[in-house]
């Protein structure tokens, strides 16, 4: 098994991501663009699977959560009300000597520049707002200012009344959204862990005020379980309650779901008890009543909100790290991504032993048996051993090999990724066999 504290693990993951088409540095042909990344042919599949797995758990398998896809561009009024214009800032200091810029809260010694080592050269801290500002329309005037959302959450609050009026849901119920968010991070880094453009998976769960604490505990447990169910070992996960001085401006209680990254524990997701802060703020700033009238008890209240807020891109990185493994097989090192089948980019790879007819025709027939059910790869190049290695490295749970005997016995060899065991399966029975083995 791979040692999670292996100092080379990050390099290996970054390298694998580049080599196999998971993640590329953005605008690479122009020398790259700091801390932005593009998801390649394999990565886009995995990232989509992470988001789909979240959606399945949070929306599809429940009756009390509905979905939303709100706009990324938003007017200043939203961020005025949410508190982001005033509070979503980092304290920045500059070194007068080397001109480097740092987050004050990341410095151990406020007297020494961590870059050039000069003493007494750091400026006073200034607040730096993390939101990306732009202009909507052709005129760059203040009336046209717009922001790229720094979180998806506000779309759920501003649409609270729309959703209540159209979905026949009543508290306790949630609104879920997956999408891009943007933050002008001062210190992006650690690959896709902290980037300026990233994807979030957030759900705002609206509850009667008295039920807030119970639902907060419920969502903390549910969310830790989600990562475990998708294959992250329990010892690499923990739930860490925030100290009072760590809490965001809107929260009375937050716990982070943390993963043991190669550099230590890092946040995957925050579960926050936001109380009625957001709905009250938006009601006050917009003048629209965002209270809820409960017919049964004939009472009116402003719901409290419990928010599990996860990062899709960051979670994908954690799943890659947790799944990465190297083992000795017949004197050679085999690299294998032991990804949960739900997250694996391809579920099945179809591999004809030769790239000549009539084997390829049969392989195409086999592919058409499985392709409607799962994302499948088809590869007829190189020696079969190398093709297996490639599929192991991208985490494909099953390889289906078509050999010359297949032409006679109408059967194929199914190889399982983790155990490397092989089974002969009739082509007629293949889809059913794989469905049982993959689990869906
Ligand atoms: N609505 C609450 C909220 O946005 P957050 O803790 O700031 O809370 C939630 O963000 C999650 O979004 C984080 O746990 C992390 O997974 C992800 N995230 C936040 N900033 C990120 C960044 N710069 N790069 C990648 N992921 C980020």
Describe this structure in words.
A hairpin with a 2-residue loop joins strand 18 (324-329) and strand 19 (332-337). The chain is built from 13 helices and 24 strands. With 440 residues, it is of the alpha+beta class. The model has no long low-confidence stretch (mean pLDDT 96). The site of glycyl-adenosine-5'-phosphate (GAP) has 19 residues, from strand 11, strand 14, strand 17 and helix 9. Glycyl-adenosine-5'-phosphate (GAP) binds next to strand 11, strand 14, strand 17 and helix 9.
Short description:
This protein is 31% helix and 29% strand. The protein is of the alpha+beta class and 440 residues long.
Based on the model shown, name its key terms:
alpha+beta, seven-stranded mixed beta sheet, binds glycyl-adenosine-5'-phosphate, 440 residues, 13 helices, globular
Strand content: 25-35%
Integer average pLDDT:
96
What's the quaternary structure here? single chain
How are the strands of the biggest sheet laid out side by side? 3-10-11-17-14-13-12
The number of helical elements comes to 13
Counting DSSP E segments of at least 2 residues, the number of strands comes to 24
The separation of the N and C termini measures: 27 Å
* Uncertain spans: none
Largest sheet: 7 strands, mixed
- Helical percentage: 25-40%
Helix/sheet category: alpha+beta
Query: What spatial form do the alpha-carbon principal axes imply?
Result: globular
Bound molecules: glycyl-adenosine-5'-phosphate
Specify Rg, calculated over alpha carbons: 25 Å
